[in-house]
Amino acid sequence: MDNLAHALVGAALGRAVADGRAPHAALVGAVAANAPDWAEFLIGFRGRRLDYYTLHRGITHSFLGAAVEIAGLTLLIGLGATWWARRRGAPSPAWGWIALCVGATVLSHLVMDWQGSYGLRPWLPWSERWYYGDAVAIVDPFFWLVPLVALGWGGRRHWRPLALVGGVGVPITVVVLRADQAGSWLKVVFAGLCVVAALGWTRHWFGVVGRRRAAATALVALAGYALAQGIASLPAKAAARRAAIVRFGPGAQWAALTVVGRPFSWEPIYASADTVAGDDWALPRHLNDPQVQDALLHTSEGRAMLQFARFLTAEVDTGPSEGGGGMLVLLRDARYTRVARAGWAVVVIRMSGGGG
After folding, report:
1. Host H or E run for residue 275
2. Distance CA 41, CA 342 (A)
3. pTM above 0.85, yes or no
4. Which of 21, 217, 303, 343 is deepest in the core (most CB within 10 A)?
């Protein structure tokens, strides 16, 4: 999921698990919950398009990577907190609570990333296999609002915490209410929750004393919401599987993909070795074309797309192109794009002569 969702859920989880026991538990939770993403910059990720196909959701999002991140962050935070406590003459921090806070929030990142249709590879470096929950979309505004409300309800009655919550809450509310992708019912529920959030803050439902309870309540609600989507996805997945078998036989590949802005909605997609299709569209894959095979096996871009794309399609363009110098092989992941010649999940490889 997006980094804002990871940060807000991580802050709420850190507060629920270790507030009052580990130093700055909410802040530690927000940082640790994003560790699998920012740790990618330590292994060569530079934000290039190809990096997203190879390094993103790679080793840093595996169980091994998470273990290293938990150990490293616990050590850094524990040493820093111990030094600060000694400097002030305060008791040493509880390392066990720091480890629990860091561990829970780092692992929350893996769970939240798994539940969508982008997927992750938890068994790296031993297995390159991707796993997909196909339950909750990669961007879901309730994963912003629910933890943010809990953090606000547990804040001090002062303008600074309120300004921080408002500084995050107002922009996301504007984005959601103006988004064409967002369904009407989602906007209505989101607006209603905003009213409840304001009411809870003005009436002091939780406050500082009850902030762990507020965070825990929000997380239980969010987990129930995600679980409800997971259960609701089962009939959609079963229908996609049946349709795929009817269309392409028992060896067909299929999925029910999440739809951003439309919780509890899924888009079916089916594939055979030759074709990828939806309910009202179909595309040839061309994966057995010699030029495509050459690009997939002998270029870095092709190998990257081969291991990243869930529904890979290819197109060979032998016509004149800008710059000249050979034919073009276009690789696409049909989860995200089907005919575009540029953009996300599209790789254009210029083949010189007969090979790469």
Report:
1. strand 275-277
2. 25
3. yes
4. 217
Total domain count, the chain: 3
CB 113 within 8 A of CB 9: no
Which residue, among 292, 291, 295, has the nearest Cα to 314 in the 3D structure?
292
**Average pLDDT for runs of 10 along the chain of length 356:** 96 96 95 97 88 91 98 97 91 94 98 96 96 96 95 84 87 90 90 91 86 96 97 98 96 96 96 95 95 94 94 87 72 94 91 60
Q: Would 356 be classed as within a structural domain?
A: no
Cβ 132 vs Cβ 117: under 8 Å: yes
Distance from C-alpha of 255 to C-alpha of 239, rounded to nearest angstrom: 10
Strand partners, 82: none
Q: Which two tokens stand for residue 279?
A: 């309910």
In a domain, 150, yes or no: yes
CA pair distance 52, 61, nearest whole angstrom: 13
Q: Which residues of 158-189 are buried (b: 16+ CB within 10 A; e: fewer)?
A: eeebeeebeebbeebbeebeeeeebeeebbee
Q: What's the pLDDT score for residue 133?
A: 97
288, 246 in Cβ contact below 8 A? no
Structural domain ending residue among the three candidates 226, 249, 273: 226
